[in-house]
Design brief:
The complex is a heterodimer of chains A (246) and B (424).
Chain A lengths: L1 E10 L2 E11 L4 E5 L6 H9 L4 E10 L2 E2 L5 H6 L2 E4 L6 E5 H15 L7 H14 L10 E2 L5 H15 L3 E5 L7 H14 L5 E6 L3 H5 L4 E6 L2 E6 L2 H9 L7
Parallel strand pairs in A: 3-10, 3-11, 6-9, 9-10
Antiparallel strand pairs in A: 1-2, 1-4, 4-5, 7-8, 11-12
Helix pairs in contact in A: 5-6
Chain B lengths: L3 H11 L5 H17 L16 H4 L3 E2 L20 E6 L2 E2 L10 E3 L2 H7 L12 H9 L5 E4 L9 E7 L6 E3 L2 E6 L4 E10 L5 E3 L2 E6 L4 E9 L5 E10 L4 E8 L4 E10 L5 E10 L4 E10 L5 E10 L4 E10 L6 E11 L5 E10 L4 E11 L2 H8 L5 H17 L5 H20 L2
Helix pairs in contact in B: 2-5, 6-7, 7-8
Classes of the chains: A alpha/beta (246), B alpha/beta (424).
Chain lengths: 246, 424
């Protein structure tokens, strides 16, 4: 589904990614772990197409299409989603309106009929229950006045609504208390199936207790230095990252 | 160059039988205008606006001959409102309707009964003096005490086709009686491409316990000069909710002055200004707290595209020995182009102790994080920008109570955004 080959990227002349190779197949959940500054978020930003990230080498293909040629919205429409580490507040833009516009952009892209407001309300009320969010968040501006945990739930709500084929969870666990973490993880787990893939970026093994990753990769200084199954997370928890430093 | 003296003489000749006291006022005002001259860059309160185009244009007053064929459909009509209609400066009473308790008076009658509203003051600016000297259109609208006018009154001041560059000096008075309530939409629009100059003065008086929702729409054509003065007087416990929506004009200058003449008044003045190409919008607001327990709130937003420019100068004065003043003033500007320019100068002058005052001003560009966030959800860049700017404008539009009026302006904003972003 997603194939990353020898990916090298820089931000403002600083080389961050130094040759990433990673293949994610349908149905798989991969976790990327690593210290601050190791390049985890840069990888997420390069895949989603944020400005100022310059790819100097390598390729990223998604369902056989070169992602790097596409705009952020084209990537989103082709099935890529990111739950943001820091979801953005958009004053004056209604959350429900935004969610519906996002879903309709996808439906339109797929040549399907757009969803009307009434049908959307029925749909979104169902999805709200899955992340245990109050309906009051629907009438607010996007992320406006949301606590850290509410913002993260709102990200997952968007994922459940848009139903992307490939989702990046960028530090979705940070800022969540244990109850919220369980709800978010359960939202993701119920959403998993044999078609959908995930890339979870995290500092801690904590999130992975609630989501079962198929693979864990350790990123150090812009390179994947170790890959393994979920026992690797436990080892990292116990020993830290230093045993992997070259 | 516009020969104001010649135009003034023509006006006096046109109405030879005019009331002597009104005529005296005109002379005094014209003298004041001559004494002041047009503003220059050296005038502190006028320094960011260039009035030199007045020297290149030759405006003349609009006469009955300039009354065009009436349009089959009046543009800009907001549904479910009472209409007061003027075209090229000429009041069309047959197309206007006034509900019960509302009177459209004549300028002379209004002047006779409220001479102080017309008297020349030391602080008058040249355009106000020019208006008083040449006032040739506009109407006084009186709302009787205790009358609640359900539907908004839409005053349309339309400029349409004419042969030469015209000027008009409309004088409006909106007198809201005690305990009365009304919504007045003061709507200026131009539908031709020709150059013209509109110099309105609106005097708004709200009686005790009265309230007014005042929506001012400045939708002149892009070659027009629109220089305006709005004076609000709020008597005790009266309320004003004003929204100034402005998207037209090559040069737009608006001076808003608000005086609390009794205790317990409450005023909100919001503004939304949209500029593109080489448009220039300059708004000056002075709110004078000279009585107790009055509240004033100002929020002015500008959205500037292309090489357009804006000026916001807001001042709140809290006089000595006043109590319980609550005043805030905020100015937020969004630059859509690197060539757009904004000058903001919020000021507080506080001479009392029992006050709660805040003010602030910010100018920035579209939030790139927000833009990326929305695009990462599949929205096109265009759609995302529209939503972000629309969200920015919403804070001004939301408080407009009448839904039809709000929708009218929201649609204007949406259409403006589509165009401004496409050619950006």
């Amino acid at each position: 589904m997603l194939e990353i080959k020898n990916l090298q990227a820089k931000v403002e002349d600083k080389e961050i990614l130094k040759g990433i190779n990673l293949t994610i197949n349908p149905g798989e959940l991969h976790a990327i772990m690593g210290r601050n500054g190791s390049g985890k978020s840069t990888l997420a930003n390069v895949i989603t197409g944020r400005d100022n990230y310059i790819v100097t080498e390598g390729s990223v293909t998604f369902k056989g299409v070169n992602l790097l040629d596409l705009s952020p919205e084209e990537r989103a429409l082709s099935g890529i989603f990111m739950s943001f580490q820091y979801p953005v507040v958009i004053p004056g833009v209604n959350n429900t309106y935004f969610l519906r516009a996002a879903l309709n952009a996808k439906l339109k892209h797929q040549g399907l009929k757009e969803i009307n407001a009434a049908d959307f309300m029925r749909l979104i009320r169902e999805k709200l229950k899955l992340v245990d969010m109050d309906e009051k968040y629907l009438s607010r501006a996007v992320n406006d006045g949301f606590s850290g945990g509410e913002k993260k739930r709102n990200e997952i709500l968007q994922m459940l609504t848009i139903e992307p084929a490939f989702s990046i969870l960028d530090e979705t666990d940070s800022g969540l208390d244990i109850d919220a973490l369980k709800i978010v993880a359960e939202g993701v787990n119920n959403f998993r199936n044999s078609e959908r893939s995930f890339l979870a970026i995290t500092h801690y093994q904590r999130l992975l207790e609630y989501m079962q990753p198929d693979f864990i990769h350790v990123l150090i200084d812009g390179k994947i230095v170790k890959s393994g199954d979920k026992s690797l997370a436990l080892k990292l928890e116990e020993k830290g990252y230093s045993w992997l430093d070259s | 160059m516009t020969d104001f003296q010649n135009q003034f003489n023509t006006l006096l000749d046109y109405w030879p039988e005019e009331d002597q006291s009104l005529r005296n006022l005109r002379h005094q005002a014209f003298e004041k205008f001559n004494e002041l001259g047009l503003p220059t860059k050296k005038w502190e309160e006028w320094q960011f606006t260039d009035f030199s185009s007045f020297e290149k244009s030759d405006y003349r007053l609009s006469w009955t001959d300039d009354l065009p064929q009436l349009p089959r459909e009046i543009p800009g009509r907001i549904p479910n409102t009472h209409l007061i209609f003027m075209i090229n400066g000429h009041y069309q009473s047959q197309l206007s309707e006034t509900p019960e308790g509302v009177t459209v008076s004549t300028g002379l009658d209004h002047f006779k009964s409220n001479p102080n509203h017309y008297s020349i003051n030391k602080s008058d600016n040249p355009f106000l003096a020019l208006n008083t000297a040449m006032m040739n259109s506009g109407v006084p609208i009186l709302i009787d005490s205790d009358v609640i006018v359900e539907k908004p009154i839409q005053v349309i001041y339309l400029m349409t086709d004419f042969s030469e560059p015209l000027m008009n000096h409309p004088r409006f008075s909106f007198d809201i009686g005690k305990n009365a309530h009304a919504t007045i939409v003061e709507h200026y629009m131009g539908v031709s491409d020709q150059k013209y100059f509109v110099n309105p003065v609106s005097q708004v008086t709200i009686g005790s316990n009265g309230s007014l929702d005042h929506v001012r729409i400045q939708d002149e054509n892009e070659s027009a000069n629109h220089v305006a003065t709005t004076k609000y007087i709020l008597n005790s416990n009266s309320r004003l909710k004003a929204t100034c929506f402005s998207s037209g004009g090559q040069l737009f200058r608006h001076d808003i002055n608000l005086d609390f003449e009794g205790n317990g008044g409450e005023a909100t003045i919001n503004g939304l200004s949209l500029t593109e190409n080489h448009q220039h919008h300059d708004q000056h607001v002075v709110v004078d707290h000279q009585n107790d327990a009055c509240q004033s709130h100002q929020l002015f937003k500008y959205i500037l595209a292309d090489k357009s420019s804006g000026v916001f100068n807001g001042k709140v004065v809290v006089r000595e020995h006043t109590k319980q003043t609550d005043a805030d003033q905020s100015n937020k500007n969004l630059l859509l182009s690197p060539s757009a320019l904004m000058n903001a100068n919020p000021q507080l002058e506080i001479y009392a102790e029992d006050v709660k005052c805040t003010h602030g001003s910010t100018t920035g560009q579209i939030d790139k994080e927000a833009l990326f966030y929305m695009r990462s959800r599949g929205l096109s860049k265009q759609k995302a920008i529209e939503l972000i700017i629309g969200g920015f404008a919403k804070e001004i539009l939301d408080p407009i109570k009448n839904v039809a009026v709000k929708n009218y302006i929201s649609e204007k904003v949406a259409r403006w955004l589509e165009e401004a972003i496409i050619h950006d």
